[in-house]
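>> Question from a student workshop board

For tomorrow's exercise we were told to take the sequence and the ligand below, predict the bound structure, and bring the output to class. My setup keeps failing. Could a helper post the expected result so I can at least see what it should look like? The ligand is acetoacetyl-coenzyme A.
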Amino acid sequence: MELADVTTISVLGAGNMGHGIAEVSALAGYDVTLRDINEELVQKGYEQIEWSLDKLVEKDQLSDEEADAARERITPVVDMEDAVAEADVIIEAVPEVMDIKRDVYSEVDEYAPDHAIFATNTSSLSITELSEATDRPERFCGMHFFNPPVRMQLVEVIAGDHTSEETLAVVEELAESMDKTPVRVHKDSPGFIVNRVLIPLLNEAAWLVEEGTATIGEVDATTKFDMGLPMGAFELADQVGIDVSYHVLDYMHETLGDAYRPCPLLAEKVETEQVGKKAGEGFYKYD
Ligand code: CAA
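>> Workshop helper replied:
Here is what the output should look like for this input. Compare the format with yours to find the bug.
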């Protein structure tokens, strides 16, 4: 398959990342189905896309016509067969839990056209292991966007042990067609490049607060203004989702060892469901 054969993209999962990936795909001119497990979740994702498109128009980064065209290209669906039956590329952004993702893949495999490429937006999990839940491991790779997808330039394209060169080339070109910069990750290693560097930073920031070395405000002021990050470490954890950060860390701890032991402060936030911007509260409160 070549990029020219790609006209329809199915995005599975309408959450924080899924809705953004659907938006970016529609803005690039692809027909998109956005799927989640119930009407309420899929509708919430669609409303977030509408909010984002309006924001881009308000800031003169998009015309009204471009926003309308993108909106019209997106079809929200709940039924899995409807979501993937016509898809050339399926980008999966369901929760960061191996068993959930593998279950989704075994269902999708049944309904997706034979030629379709499966691209997972996993933040850390093994591409090889996920690909083995399908009958097409050679047409399976990682396509990892960053939050918020509509603003972040980078996409990691990750090869699993079975991924074909043709699949990687199509997915890299697909990212470029979305005005993104793909970076190939040659080895299927937990956290890939960005999260291997970023998530321990968020964890260390949490340990500093946990052990009483600094306050959240002091860590954020230092990481933002003095180290030059675009957001403070805790602001970034809220943006990414503390639950996502925790899942990634937990997996890195399990696969790479004790250096990645999650700070209890993160676990507490997950337990109390104060997981960041999307929940209205994380380390900070949001309207
Ligand atoms: N769509 C449209 N507008 C959006 C938006 C979206 N999805 N998200 C935020 N905005 C808007 C905000 O509402 C705000 O609008 P107002 O000014 O009206 O309040 C505006 O964008 C802010 O944009 P600015 O350009 O003024 O602000 P900025 O220069 O700070 O840029 C940013 C914002 C691009 C998010 C920047 O802060 C940034 O780069 N932050 C770091 C984000 C990051 O590192 N993400 C990766 C995390 S790792 C990850 O995601 C991977 C994983 O697997 C865990």
